[in-house]
Structures are given as C-alpha cells and as structure tokens.
Amino acid sequence: MVTRRAFAGGMALGAAALATLPAAAQAGEQPPQYPAAPWTGAGTVRRAGGELHYVSLGEDGAALPVVLLHKLGGWVADWRDVAPALARGRRVIAIDLPGHGASRWQGTPPQVQTVMETATLVLGALQDMGLPQVDLVGTSLGGCVAVAMAALAPERVRRLALPCCVLGPASTHEQVAAKEKGQAAMFTAEGDPLPGDPGLARDIFGLRDFERIGAEQNASRARAGRWIRPHERGVAYTDFVELMRRITAPTLLLYGGHDTFFLKYRPTAEANLRDVRSVVLSDASGFPVQDDPQETALELVRFFA
C-alpha cells in the first residue's frame, strides 16, 4: 500500500532523477529519455505482473487531484506543457500506461491488452495511492482507458475530459487484421515500431509543430516498443458506444480544428454521453495536448472549475 505521506513527499524526485530510467529490453540499448519536464514528484505502484510509473506536480488543495493519461505510444512527458496550469491549488498526476514510458511489465507483451484490463490496473493504482475520486483526462489510448474507468467505477470519476479519442463501436477480427496489414511498414516482423515520417503526422492529424512532436513521438514509441500493437488491438475490440452510455460524469470532448482523424468520432460521442460539452480548438491539431497546450489547458481549467 502506498500511503498518502509517501505519495505526497517520500517518493518525490527532481526532474534530473526522472532522466534515469530502466534499461531497454532489447539488445541492452539505452532507451530514449524523457524531455525536460516540470514534475516535482514521481513513484511507482506495483500491480499484477508489473508496475505503473507516475509523476506529479502541485500540492493537495480544495480541488480533487486530476489524473492525466497519455496517447498510444506516448508517455507522461506528453503532458508537461498542460500540467502546470492544472496544478494551481491541486495535485496533478500523470501515469505511464502499461508498457509505456517507465511503466514495466514482466515477460512478453500479450497479443491483446484490453482497455478494461488497463482501466482496472489504473483504478487499483489510484486506490493504492489513497485517491478514492479524481478528475480524469485522457487523450487517444488514455482517453479510451478513461472512458472504461468512468463506466466501470462511476463513483471514482467526478469529471471526465477527452481530448481527441477514438470512441466508436468494436471492430471485427477481420477489420483489425486488414488494418494491421496496411500498417505493416510501420513495424518490424517482431512487432517493434519503426521510426515514422513526421510529415504523415502533419497530413493526418494536422500537426503544426510536426517536426518536434514527430521526433518525440518516435522516441516515446521506441520506449513502448512491442506494447503498442497489443494496446491498439484492445482499443479496436472495445465497444465504446456501450461504455459511453454507462458514464454519469460530466464529460468534455475536445478536438482540434485542423484534425482529420479524431473529429469523425465526435457525433457518436455526443450522441451517447449523458452530460457532454464539446469544444473545437480552431487552431489545434489532433494532438492538442502537445500542439496547443495553452488552449487545451485553458479549456480543462474551465471545465474542472
């Protein structure tokens, strides 16, 4: 059990310490390092078969803590430019999802890492950290996990914010196989992600700062390695329409006006969430957390207030 005292202070690490991360699982190579970030605390929580790594910023205040969950192939550093605005008068916790960043699991990644499985791991970790209720933000994969958390344990999530998430019905095995066949050039035969062309992120997601964000995305995907496809399959096999209908928490949908990928899920999400507010950031991309962090943070602060 991680006590509140240990969480708040005893496990605190400086930003320099966060650069010392576990060695890569492949060929003894040093893994890509986190970019410089504002975090003032960090720690790990043991869960079944592994451990979840988290970082934190701010102090306990009148408001509930806010928990941040990153995108597929991302890491906690994705939130470094959003977290400071959210940490005024409250604690902000960003979590590396299983197999991502500095979160580590034993053995070979599974064929499928289900969204429900990840959601229960995060809910268990928050319980161990002494956090019975939180405000929750998730983007991309993190948003899918956040939806499952809010559906499974509505009493644990006061408010839910979802910047740019895939929130549709479940795919068939045939559809998933066809998609993976089309993505074959993005992975090695063993399932490791290959460096991507940042220009594709610009074309698909409308990224403005595509060179910087694309380079960081390659680094964070290299850290996640063979965990990317199991998580992606878990998202594909999940019926988010059914899950959204269970959610009682007020929910913010946040999109980028230059995005051509996530916006197509907006009508389905708006139709199936009970208490929903939808905002489009006109100058943002499909990665608003990284591409337009100031406007993203402003909308989140407004919503949680």
Q: Categorize the overall geometry.
A: globular
* Count of individual helical segments: 13
CATH top level is Alpha Beta
Mean pLDDT, to the nearest integer, reads 89
Order of helices and strands: HHEEEHEEHEHEHHHHHEHEHH
CATH topology: Rossmann fold
Description:
This protein is of the alpha/beta class and 305 residues long. The chain has one domain (37-304): 3-Layer(aba) Sandwich (Rossmann fold). Helix content is 37%, strand content 16%. It contains 13 helices and 9 strands. Strands 1, 2, 3, 4, 5, 6, 7, 8 and 9 form a 9-stranded mixed sheet that branches. A hairpin with a 2-residue loop joins strand 1 (41-47) and strand 2. Helix 4 crosses helix 5 (141-152), helix 5 (141-152) crosses helix 10 (240-246) and helix 7 packs across helix 8. The protein is globular, with a radius of gyration of 18 Å. The protein starts with a helix and ends with a helix.
Q: How is this structure best summarized?
A:
This protein is of the alpha/beta class. The protein has helices at residues 4-10, 15-18, 83-86, 115-128, 141-152, 173-182, 198-205, 210-224, 228-236, 240-246, 266-272, 288-291, 293-304; strands at 41-47, 50-57, 66-69, 92-95, 104-105, 134-138, 157-163, 251-256, 276-281.
